[in-house]
Amino acid sequence: MSEKFSVYVDGFNLYYGLKAKSAHKYLWLDLVKLAERLRPRSTLTKVHYFTAPVLNDAQAAARQSDYLAALKATNGSRIEIVQGRYQSKTMECRQCGGQWQRHEEKETDVNIAVSLVADAASKSIDTALLISADSDLAPAVRMASRVNPNFVTIAVFPPRRFSAELKTLMPRSAHLGVNHIRNSLLPDTVTDSTSGDSWGRPAKWR
Fold it and tell me: Which residue windows are transmembrane per the record (predicted)?
């Protein structure tokens, strides 16, 4: 029987890795197509994409909205988009006493951990690809192995991202190569076959 696998994408970790490597050139990325390229001999069950809405930048928020809509239109139920949230935190300058608000992204690590451990416990898949270099996910990887000793988690590090802890913890790891990324982009225009709505690749992402 073909191995079944799912992919868990840390959206922020991947985004900043792609930007560090190639600016905005590869942000219009089809995550399902990428997953299938990474493991072509296995059966993809689902891609779980963990992100959070853009704040305080209307144009960036519009690009993100178009991208998420294009992903869903292209891949339907094969992709799950899990939105986190932000928490406001008051910061204070030690020298002048001035204060300002900073927004911290919350829930992504927890959402990834819950999804990973739940899939391991259900035994619905054999292998998990974790696209992240966030060492905070190490406890979730350990727990997934504990609840299902046959469950395999493989780290796929985004460009210019690396975690020695995750590499040591997992039986296999790899860096996400540019060739896989380049060959996994969405079409420049994505059209929903049901609604007829279309979304174009943002000019800034070309």
Answer: none
What pLDDT is attached to residue 106? 64
User: Domain total for the chain?
Assistant: 1
Q: Which domain holds residue 52?
A: 4-205
Are the C-beta atoms of residues 153 and 116 closer than 8 Å to each other? Answer: yes
> pTM for the full model?
0.91
Amino acid occupying residue 20: A
Closest Cα to residue 70, out of 204, 195, 179?
195
Report the Cα 51 to chain-centroid distance in Å: 7
The CATH number for 143's domain is 3.40.50.1010
Bridge partners (DSSP) of residue 5 are 44, 127
